[in-house]
Amino acid sequence: MLWGIPQTPTHGYSGSPIDQAPADPPTLGKRTVMSLLIQEIPTTDTPIELLLLADPSEDKIRSYLPRSKCFVASIDGVVVAACLVQQLGAGAHELMSIATQPAHQKSGYGTALLKWVIDFFRKSGASQIEVGTGTFGYQLAFYQRHGFRVTAIDRDFFVNNYPEPIFEDGIQLFDMLRLTLRYSGNVA
User: Fold this and answer.
1) What is the number of domains present in the chain?
2) Average pLDDT rounded to a whole number, residues 36-40
3) Is 108 left (phi over 0), alpha (psi -120 to 50) or beta?
4) Among 25, 11, 16, which residue's Cα sits nearest to residue 115?
5) Which CATH number does the domain housing residue 174 bear?
6) Residue 26 vs residue 169, higher pLDDT
7) For the segment 85-120, what is each residue's pLDDT rounded down to a tens digit?
């Protein structure tokens, strides 16, 4: 699930070249900003503090963490964005959380991480990737810009699954939109 954006760095992990790959760095006009490294890290190194910007419940994050893969985007060893992805079934995965450090938001790092993760699962033979988000706000447009389409509404999800009300831009979240990106040509 995702509707926020990030906060704290974690120690990097230098996986094998198969586990990591440089991403196309965000650009300002024609000028490259910095070299961004995106890689999978052990879930024991997950930057929980950062992901709390996307999912305000540490208990919820810890509940899906053991069944997830963690991916981070870093610059010079400093994590600027992170996400968790969980396998749902044969060929289907769910983006459970994605967040970008506040100081690095609107710099393209969250977009670079999402594109990299979408490509990673496409290349692994997945048939689709799903995400759940609030019914309004910039997150909805963020996913739709990357090809996700609304496939379901989970009514009262936020009031039934979180002890405290969650507000976005002063409006309480009630329902969760389920979005899916189907990979064309992949059969898992």
Assistant:
1) 1
2) 96
3) left
4) 25
5) 3.40.630.30
6) 169
7) 999 998 999 999 999 999 999 999 999 999 999 999
The two tokens of residue 97 are 């959380």
Answer yes or no: is 13 within a domain: no
Q: Which domain holds residue 71?
A: 20-26+34-182
Query: What residues contact 68, with CB distance under 8 A and at least 6 apart?
Result: 43, 84, 85, 86, 96
What is the dihedral sign for C-alpha 39, 45, 46, 47?
Answer: negative
Taking a C-beta distance cutoff of 8 angstroms, is the pair 146, 115 a contact? yes
Q: Give the Cβ contact number of residue 160 at 10 Å.
A: 10
1 is a domain residue: no
Whether the pLDDT of residue 82 is over 60: the answer is: yes
In a domain, 129, yes or no: yes
Q: Is the pLDDT of residue 42 over 80?
A: yes
The answer to whether position 5 is within a domain reads no
DSSP class per residue in 57-93? -HHHHHHHGGGEEEEEEEETTEEEEEEEEEEEETTEE
| CB proximity list for 31: less than 8 A, separation 6 or greater | none
